[in-house]
């Protein structure tokens, strides 16, 4: 009969042939006859609990008390474990906490009584990630815990790269079979205490890992240009053309962008637009061209064109010189009357005088 650990408890033994009021406790030596009906009971010391029997493959490890018929020699060990035990590295950075009800066994299936922490000076490469501080080998290798226990790790913030967010640190273990680091999903960072914790179910090589990808990228404004409008598309020389487009900020933060307007590849005007998240506005440009031709338009990479038509010749203005006047059919008596009178007198007076002379001749 054996007890592990030695101070974890005792084993009380009675036989149905002995007085039940006078049990014997291991390591007392008591002679037993072949065929005796033996009853043994594991009794845990203060701060410990019974975890099971080992050594004899034919017994039920969880029966307590355990009844046996003594027919040959037996080798049995009563296993105890502390209700709460903490293993800590020599530098004080790592600790393992095993609570009551946890089965902690080494690779051979024996109760775990100690843990060794050794800094790994040349750990396997974690690829694009970086190891914060040092990796540690926790031994005995292959020791297992059911349910998993808590690994607590204290780190130094000066070891964390600037591109890594502290709250995104993780604990990982090295899987020798897969030749890769495996991240423990329940890693929990306490940035106020500079401590990270995770649940582990076996002992192997562990490390705190960080990658630049774990830091959140800064939010950005994202601008788009759509709905280009050119009005009118065809004009006379010297007429105004209006160019407009819809500018939208599809990002999640407020931002600004220059909206550049080009004609035939040359910058004609620039406007600065500031928009909040999911906001939009219409920008407008006016242009006047005097030479006929087709003009290409570029507004932040959104293109189109308009045409200036050939100039049209104007008809000659009407003449301001009055047309020559035509003779009037009306008689201008004030002018003509004296003339007619003079002609009449010139003809009439000589005739009259002649007649008068003839009259005298009679």
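-> sequence recovered:
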């Amino acid at each position: 009969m054996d007890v592990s650990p030695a101070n974890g408890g005792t084993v009380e033994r009675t036989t149905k042939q002995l007085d039940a009021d006078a049990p014997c406790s291991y390591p007392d030596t008591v002679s037993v006859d072949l065929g005796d009906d033996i009853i043994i009971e594991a009794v845990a010391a203060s701060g410990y609990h019974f975890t099971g029997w080992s050594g004899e493959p034919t017994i039920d490890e969880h029966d307590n008390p355990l009844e046996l018929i003594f027919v040959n020699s037996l080798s049995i060990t009563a296993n105890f474990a502390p209700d709460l035990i903490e293993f800590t590295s020599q530098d004080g950075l790592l600790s393992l906490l095993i609570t009551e009800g946890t089965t902690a066994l080494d690779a051979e299936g024996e109760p775990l009584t100690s843990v060794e922490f050794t800094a790994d000076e040349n750990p396997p490469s974690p690829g694009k990630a970086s190891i914060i501080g040092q990796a540690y080998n926790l031994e005995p290798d292959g020791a297992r815990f059911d349910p998993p226990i808590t690994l607590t790790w204290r780190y130094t913030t000066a070891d964390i790269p600037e591109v890594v967010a502290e709250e995104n640190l993780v604990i990982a273990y090295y899987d020798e079979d897969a030749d890769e680091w495996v991240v423990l999903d329940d890693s929990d960072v306490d940035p106020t205490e500079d401590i990270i914790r995770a649940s582990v179910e076996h002992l192997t090589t562990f490390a705190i890992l960080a990658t630049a990808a774990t830091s959140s990228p800064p939010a950005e404004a994202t601008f788009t240009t759509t709905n280009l409008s050119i009005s009118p598309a065809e004009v006379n020389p010297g007429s105004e053309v209006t160019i407009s487009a819809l500018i939208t900020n599809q990002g999640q933060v407020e931002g600004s962008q220059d909206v550049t307007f080009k004609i035939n590849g040359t910058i004609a005007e620039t406007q600065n637009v500031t928009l909040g998240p999911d906001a939009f506005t219409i920008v407008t440009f006016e242009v006047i061209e005097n030479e006929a031709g087709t003009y290409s338009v570029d507004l932040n990479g959104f293109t189109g064109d308009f045409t200036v038509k050939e100039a049209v010749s104007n008809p000659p203005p009407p003449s301001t010189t009055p047309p020559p006047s035509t003779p009037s059919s009306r008689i201008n008596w004030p002018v003509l009357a004296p003339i007619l009178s003079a002609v009449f007198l010139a003809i009439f007076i000589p005739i009259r005088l002649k007649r008068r002379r003839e009259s005298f001749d009679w």
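Confidence is low (pLDDT under 50) at residues 18-22.
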